[in-house]
Amino acid sequence: MSRPESSLSIALVGPGRVGRSLLERLQAHAPETWQLMAVADSTRLRRGPIERSEWAQPFADEAFQPRASDRDWQDELLRRDGIPVLIDASASAEVADAHADCLARGIHVVTANKLAMACPSSDWERLRAASERSMYGISATVGAGLPVLDSLRELRRAGEPVRRIRGVLSGSLSALSEGLSVGRRASEVLETLRRDGLTEPDPRTDLGGLDVARKLVILAREAGLDLSLDALVVDSLVPEELAALSLDSFLRSGAVLDRHVAQCVDRAPGSGRHLAYVAELEVDGRACVGLRRLDDGDSLAQLSGQGNRIEVTTECYAAAPLSIEGPGAGLEVTALALWRDLVRISESVRRCR
Ligand SMILES: NC(=O)c1ccc[n+]([C@@H]2O[C@H](COP(=O)([O-])OP(=O)(O)OC[C@H]3O[C@@H](n4cnc5c(N)ncnc54)[C@H](OP(=O)(O)O)[C@@H]3O)[C@@H](O)[C@H]2O)c1
């Protein structure tokens, strides 16, 4: 018997911290018509349909196989009656590279992984074209799901050009800046953030500014502006001697990190007493991310904890920018953003049929 048209056939790649949080939500709240057809991490693959009672722990009973080709389960998704969806909750370049192919083949993609959307300009046109064939859910990639990408998309559709984007785009760097402002050591703040699942799998991706730079590229592209990573000026908080170490060695090098970050704080542009890692993009393409000293009156200086704030200046929003603020990291809010994109796909595809 064929399933109702809003049924989803889901494959989830990357059942790590964010992925598991989403699997728990799916197990508890997904409509009966949604099926989990595959779960894969870097080495293992569990093929479905998987019993709902096992969704939150898909590898628990050892009913998995070594991960080889993804093509097989992608073909299986396409053969089924449900709407095929790939969820990418990894931080892997290999998985990101598959987004354009999946979208072009008719598999909708929902992602927390920023690598595809922040790809080099040479790959961007292919991804953009593929995302017109299938739905591409990217809400979780910036601001852990704050409704900023939707707002930029709507401004673009309405023909309202974006002139400037400025903001604090990283929950972990927001919390780090706040800690540094009150004299805490970088390594100490980082350890707490890592324990709470609020950093990237390798926290140097946060500290080096690359994660924020990728988010700025995604915001720019969603606003219809041309920006790629190599055009961005990125101020890194990672000392050169720690950049190439293994993750474990880096995590054991707290004293070196603390000394370097203290120097970055001393050198940070600005004269205010608030520290923030700020992203800025002008319509002429000038773009930078880095640590800044902000005055008391600066709207970005009011943030606390993992707060993010994104300010968008357009012709209509010239005197006062459109501002969106809220938590910018966290497993549950990120999983909720992925969930919202899944619901959106389910509803839109049903409406179109
Ligand atoms: N944490 C947050 O607050 C937050 C917020 C917004 C977005 N995100 C994004 O969410 C994603 C996941 O973050 P996380 O904190 O959940 O990371 P994580 O705990 O390290 O989980 C990553 C998962 O991806 C899997 N993986 C790695 N390489 C893979 C590959 N080549 N093929 C398939 N699976 C692979 C890992 O499997 P193995 O164990 O086998 O390596 C693991 O299951 C990242 O892209 C991150 O930027 C996170």
> What is the averaged pLDDT score?
93
Radius of gyration over alpha carbons?
A: 21 Å
Instruction: Supply the CATH class of the largest domain.
Output: Alpha Beta
Bound molecules: NADP nicotinamide-adenine-dinucleotide phosphate
| CATH topology value of the largest domain | Dihydrodipicolinate Reductase, domain 2
CATH architecture of the largest domain: 2-Layer Sandwich
Helical region count? Answer: 14
Class computed from helices, strands and strand pairing: alpha/beta
Order of helices and strands: EHEEEHEHHEHEHEHHHHEHHHEEEEH
In spatial order, strands of the major sheet run 4-3-2-1-5-6-7
What are the key terms here?
353 residues, alpha/beta, Rossmann fold, seven-stranded mixed sheet, six-stranded mixed sheet, globular, binds NADP nicotinamide-adenine-dinucleotide phosphate
If you had to describe this structure to a student in words, what would you say it looks like?
InterPro entries: Asp/hSer_DH_NAD-bd, Bifunc_Aspkin/hSer_DH, HDH_cat, NAD(P)-bd_dom_sf. It comes from Wenzhouxiangella marina. It is an enzyme of class 1 (oxidoreductase). This is homoserine dehydrogenase. This protein is α/β, with parallel strands linked by helices. 40% of the residues lie in helices and 20% in strands. A 7-stranded mixed β-sheet has the order 4-3-2-1-5-6-7, with helices on both faces. The radius of gyration is 21 Å and the shape is globular. The two termini are 19 Å apart. The structure holds NADP nicotinamide-adenine-dinucleotide phosphate (NAP). Residues 13-19, 40-43, 89-92, 94-95, 112-114, 140, 144, 197-198, 200-201, 329-331, 334 line the site of NADP nicotinamide-adenine-dinucleotide phosphate.
